[in-house]
Amino acid sequence: MNFATPSRLLRFGLFEADLQNGLLTRKGVRIRLQEQPFHILAMLLQRAGQIVTREELRQNLWPGGTYVDFDGNLNSALKRLRAALNDDADNPRFIATIPKRGYRFIAPVTIEGAVPFTEPEISPAPSPSEKSEPAAILPAAAPRLSNRRWFFLASASVAVIALVAFIFLRGRPAATPASSSAQARADVGAIGRSVAVLGFQNATGRSGDAWLSTALAEMLRTELGAGGKLRVVSGENVAQFRISSPWSETDSLSRQTTSRIGKALNSDLLVLGSFAALGDPQNGVVRVDFRLQDAQTGEILYQGAETGSEKQFFGLVANVGVALRERLGLPMISESEEVSVVSSLPSDPDANRFYSLGLAKLRDADVAAAKDLFLQAEKLAPRFPLVHLMLFRTWGGLGYDQKANEEIKTAYQLSASLPETDKLQIEGAYFGSLKELDKAAAAYRAMYTLYPDSVDYAEQFIVVLNAAGRREEALAVVKQLRNLPPPASEDPRVDFWEGQLISYSGGTAAQPYFERAAAEAASRGQKLLYALFRLHQCVNL
Q: Which of 125, 134, 502, 530 could disulfide-pair with 300, CB 3.0 to 4.6 Å?
């Protein structure tokens, strides 16, 4: 990006900003910064010591005729800029907020002629010696659902599904004619790469920092999924896999282990690492060490570290995401996508902590404890849509249908700024709560179409089609899954759902499918899936 200014280098503290080439460096090492945050920095540097109003920023960043969420986009860009500078809005070294007016750059700035910049090369990481870990285990499949409550489980975590499976097994629903609408078709040619964020080990072991592990992983999943170039494995699936078959908490995994994880989670790439909260818990810094591994070969594709203030948590995770996106050759995310990423977690630190702790409890099947934590997060961040989605799931899992319906309505009303898959999850659940199954199916169809190799999204689509009596369409989705390349086509849920759907016709035709599904789950060590498949097999005798 070029600015309308002579080529020059501005120095402040340990940083240098090359305005003509749009580069920010610290001690000669490039700091990754997107276009909007850099443009803000350039404006502040060129008027160091003076107030730059929010209106001036709006006119320069978004000229007349541009319609965007100005406040949301500006706040997001400033968060990223402060994170890159490791600056604190409450105790600033560089950028001070002038209430109701704008911002001022308060550090000394020196101007010199621009110099050429060459980004240092990062040598590949050495391959560590590793040990083999146990086989991977997938999350549980969704059980057969009654029409009255299918929508709670269609959008719930697999932990909730496993916990309340027996509640919803109330006998075989009556078969209904298939819909005459066109069958679902997914573009198999649209299949791209996928990544599983396995999580981050708490290096200090300080219990009060445990929530950061969930929060880091959740936001990084959103960061990597922005733009739709990567399919990201859900946190629910990763958590269930870890509970069933934990892996070594080292910074890297053996080839045998990565291969098993990749097959179980249908993932090409794995991200894992550790974090350490240093200093005072209230005002300390967080260091995140991370690695990117190829699931098939176990090769370490990239490793790095980022450090930032806990108060600048969003910017810290953004830096990790930018580093990984650059190594994967992914484009930088757009302004609207930036807002979506920031919207994936509450901006209030305490709300973020309660929400992350609630996710961990929900994935551990402690639905009541998760509900209490989500309620605390809701009090602090009432306009955060995903906490209402989680309350919909927990209230629904506990049998409080009216409370659940109120929460999903609120989530739907607040969901405009969320990433596309989150919006579709909420939309599907909301219309399901209203018993508008065709609209719910349209939302889940859109999600499956975005990622046609996702057995999880396909399963959610199948569940609602089954609930609506559109079983021919559901069987068509199963057939599409069979045509996918391994490991998706080998997922035992494919056989399970084919058996489940043809069981409505009566007879014993479904039994071989249940047998194959159970055998495949057993061969993978997927005990929860195996138990559910056997349960359904008994129900259908």
A: 125
Q: Residue 147 CA to chain centroid, in angstroms?
A: 29
Over residues 162-220, the pLDDT tens digits come to: 333 332 333 334 444 433 333 444 444 445 789 999 989 888 888 888 888 898 999 89
Collect all residues with Cβ–Cβ distance below 8 Å to 522 and sequence separation of at least 6. Answer: 530
Plot region of 27 (φ>0 → left; ψ -120 to 50 → alpha; else → beta): left
CA distance 514 to 50: 71
pLDDT of residue 65: 53
Report the run of H or E that residue 288 belongs to, with start and end.
strand 285-294
Say whether 225 sits in a helix, a strand or coil.
Answer: helix
CA–CA separation, 238 and 222 (whole Å): 15
Please check whether residue 36 is in contact with residue 77, taking contact to mean a CB–CB distance below 8 angstroms: yes
3-class DSSP state for residue 8?
A: strand
- Beta strand spans in 168-221 (E): 193-202
How far is Cα 501 from Cα 470, in angstroms, rounded to an integer? Answer: 10
In DSSP terms, 113 is beta-bridged to 8
Q: Taking the CA of residue 501 as centre, how many other CA atoms within 13 Å lie in the half-sphere pointing to its CB?
A: 27
Tokens of 155: 């959008």
Angle, in degrees to the nearest 10, between helices 492-502 and 527-539: 10
Q: Report the amino acid identity of residue 298.
A: G
Instruction: State yes or no: pLDDT of 413 exceeds 90.
Output: yes
pLDDT digits (tens, 9 = 90+) for 124-169: 333 333 333 333 333 333 334 444 444 444 444 343 333 333 323 3
Instruction: Confirm whether pTM is higher than 0.70.
Output: no
Q: Tell me, what amino acid is at 482? A: R
